[in-house]
Amino acid sequence: MSTIETKGLTAYYGDFQALFGVDIILRDGETTAIIGANGAGKSTVMKAITGLIKTSPEMVFIDGAPCGGREAHTAIASGIAMVPEGRRLFPSLTVEENLLLGAHCARKGPWTLERVYEVFPGLKERRRLSGTALSGGQQQMVAIGRALMSNPTSLLCDEISLGLAPVIIEDLYRNIAKLKEEGLSIVIVEQDLVRAVSVADRVYCLMEGRVSLEGRADEMSLAAIRNAYFGV
Amino acid sequence: MEWISTLLQGLLLGGVYSLFAIGLSLVFGVMRLVNIAHGDLIVLASFTSYVVVQALGVGPLMSLVIVLPTFFLFGYLVQLLVLNRTLGDDMLPPMIVTFGLSIVIQNALFDVFTADNRKLNLGPIETASFRLGNDIAIGIYPLAVFAIAIATIVALQALFYNTKLGREFRATSDDAEAARMMGINTKRVFAVATGIGMVVIAIAGVLMGVRTTFDPFSGPVRLLFAFEAVIIGGLGSIWGTLFGGIVLGLAQAIGGQIDPQFQIMTGHIVFLVVLLLRPTGFFPKVQH
User: Which residues form the ABC transporter domain (chain A) (predicted)?
Assistant: First the structure.
């Protein structure tokens, strides 16, 4: 179990500044939604937490310990797994190999290949196919299963509904709700604010690299979230 | 019969070229690194074997016991300490660094060994052959080199498709950032890939050093043949390099049979024709 915190997080892509002092707390066992329009900096926050972009150590904390700027592969070892935007399955690997890769530096825990196949039954019969030969929804299941294979305590889901049919999205979010019941800390990064807010305990809205609204989901009105989202 | 013999010689020569090409293809396939020093590293392996043979009085094949691990370690460290710092979206910086490495290796070898030609001696087996019928003779050594090339490809194929390390290689080759998200230390993967590439380079260097003479400046020609074999076969494809090597070997043998002056030229012409008609080669694995 872990609490992840960013303090005054700034991030750059070359000369372009993407984040301007973002403070976010992802509490243990909670589901946190990070919403915002395209380019608001949501995925950059995820990348900073997982070490995919460089930050100074005191900008990211895990259980109070400064962890910013460390190598990405150490984030997995500390229990953080990411379902990346666009799924990012490995085309030269089969479905099963993609899942096994998720267990590369797995911690001890309940998630095994068999358990992933139980939760996403359609994958077992397609396990020998290339990950990219599946439908969008099935690919997303592989991406989630792959992240779970590391037995994380925090699951960061970046735009998991993007480009999928509503019925598939329903199914995915049902699975996310089940994972939450198992005590997993979940971060949902979404443009679809209604969807994200409906499953979240806590909401952060980002606009142009800054937090424009934060609070408990059940204490926020949709109108206030919309205002923060669109900056009106 | 003469032509059949020529084609067989070309086929076996292709084995040597594919050995040249495998290391280049592997390193490019995993990390998109074009190693300009590849040919010079092959020559460095020949010289390293030469030194081991002279110092310990062992044969060139026995020298592999020392040369192979030395080259693995050398590749691992060069990648970890130098080349990893240059890898990124731009392919030019690592290319320039390997170009620099090429110049350093050539001049260091020239300083130590002068420009004299050297050769590794394996004894009578070098010229031994067996006959197929009355008119066709097959050299035992070229046949052995061809078999070693195939064995190397089979071993690498098994490594890539049947091991955890191979899975890491393929994932990193597909999408290095996503591989890092899975907890893979891509810098270490790159270092191991270069180490393995260097082992293949060392095998090629020692086997070629027995087959023909070498001097500190023979690297660029070996690089050229390796490039041609890789591009004919298709970027990133290990079996493709065998095919590319064989096409190149056959082309040179046929050209040499028509007129000895045409031998090398015919190989280049076939390479240019393939480049014109199939710019990505016959079995490309790398899409970008």
Answer: 4-232
What CA–CA distance (Å, rounded) separates A37 from A192?
9
Structural domain that includes position B83: 22-218
Interval A47-87: pLDDT, tens? 999 998 989 999 999 888 898 888 888 888 888 999 999 99
pLDDT of residue B288: 45
With a threshold of 0.85, tell me whether the complex ipTM lies above it.
yes
Query: How close B212 gets to chain A, by Cα (Å)?
Result: 39
The answer to whether position B244 is within a domain reads: no
pLDDT digits (tens, 9 = 90+) for A155-206: 999 999 888 888 889 888 888 888 988 889 999 998 887 888 888 999 999 9
CB contact under 8 A, B167 and A100: yes
Name which of A52, A97, A100 is nearest B180 (Cβ-Cβ). A52
Distance from CA of A219 to the nearest CA of B (A): 34
Residues of B in contact with A132 (CB under 8 A): none
The confidence score (pLDDT) of residue A101 equals: 93
B247 part of a folded domain: no
What domains are defined for chain A? 1-72+154-159+190-232 (3.40.50.300)
| Tokens encoding A22 | 């973002």
Q: Which residues contact B53 (CB under 8 A, 6 or more apart)?
A: B59, B60, B63, B120
CB contact (8 A) between residue A101 and residue B171: yes
Of residues B164, B170, B182, nearest to A102 (C-beta): B182
Whether residue B9 is contained in a domain is answered as: no
Question: Which residues on B lie below 8 Å from A90 (Cβ)?
Answer: 170-171, 174-175, 178-179
Q: What is the dihedral of CA A193, A198, A202, A207, to 10 degrees?
A: 0
- Domain assignment present for residue B240? The answer is no
Residue whose pair of structure tokens reads 């809205």 in the numeric block: A205
Identify residue A92 by its one-letter amino acid code. Answer: S
Decide if A37 touches B, using CB distance below 8 A: no
Residue A14 has pLDDT above 70, yes or no: yes
Top residue of A49, A52, A88 to mutate, by most chain B CBs within 10 Å, is A88
Chain B partners within 8 Å of A95 (Cβ): none
What is the pTM for the complete model shown?
Answer: 0.88
H helix runs in chain B, sequence order: 2-31, 38-56, 60-81, 92-113, 140-162, 164-174, 176-181, 186-211, 219-233, 238-258, 263-277
3-state secondary structure of A154: strand
Count: domains in chain B? 1
Average pLDDT, chain A: 90
